[in-house]
Amino acid sequence: MRELSFSSDDHLFGLYIAGAHLENLLWLCERSGGHETGGVLVGRYTDAHNCAVVTAISGPSSDSYRGKTTFYRGTRGLQLWLDRLWRSKHHYYLGEWHYHPHASAIPSLIDIRQMEAISNSLQYNCPEPVLLIIGGHVSAWEARAFVCPRTNGAIEMQRRVDGVAIDAFGIDEHRDELPNLRHQHERGNLARRAASECRQDQGG
């Protein structure tokens, strides 16, 4: 699957998702049926600090609420997962993603306010969080991306044509390859790992 990349008009901010990670994200959307879903984006910044490179995508935690037009991301097991990615790769929280089934990829006022709160939160320590919204259906989807700098409100980033981000940001497509979530799930590994993490998080 092709990459997904965005950049602001002034090229100070960018977002890059390699094809394998995009496939994982769309699979999570497909699994949600007609309900909204979402999660967090994890990764790193380019050396020039002008592009967030996604290397891991979470689905909704077990304490998330998913409705037909509403999604509230929970936190159960999330910190454990983030800590593991930091220890193993020094990769960290970049922002959030949402899926609007059978609807446009337009963020709600609540979405924007939440991102602005994250940018000002000492707990998140992420002054420029990104928000990716997938709208429509997995067979005919659209995507919009925003960055919310602490001092400037939400800025929409424009989608780039395939391959431009690799040249513009100096991204190594293969540096951060991870296993495909769909294949892991089919083998049963993902479910067992998630259950184990939840038990650890709950002290079981």
Tell me about this structure.
The chain is an alpha+beta fold and 204 residues long. It has one domain: Cytidine Deaminase, domain 2, CATH 3.40.140. The protein is 30% helix and 28% strand. It contains six helices and ten strands. An eight-stranded mixed β-barrel has the order 1-2-4-3-7-8-9-10. A two-stranded antiparallel sheet has the order 5-6. A hairpin with a 4-residue loop joins strand 5 and strand 6 (71-72). The longest helix is centred in the first third of the chain and has 13 residues, at 19-31. The chain is globular. The termini are far apart. The model is unreliable at 177-204 (pLDDT under 50).
CA radius of gyration is 16 Å
What are the secondary-structure elements, in order, as H or E? Answer: EEHEEEEHEHEEEHHH
> Which CATH architecture would you pick?
3-Layer(aba) Sandwich
Major beta sheet, strand line-up: 1-2-4-3-7-8-9-10
Give the structural class.
alpha+beta
CATH structural class = Alpha Beta
- Average pLDDT, rounded to a whole number, is 83
Form type? globular
Weakly predicted, low-confidence segments: 177-204
Portion of residues in beta strands equals: 25-35%
Overall strand count = 10
CATH superfamily (homologous) name: Cytidine Deaminase, domain 2
Largest sheet properties: 8 strands, mixed, barrel
Q: What's the helical proportion of residues? A: 25-40%
Our count of helices gives 6
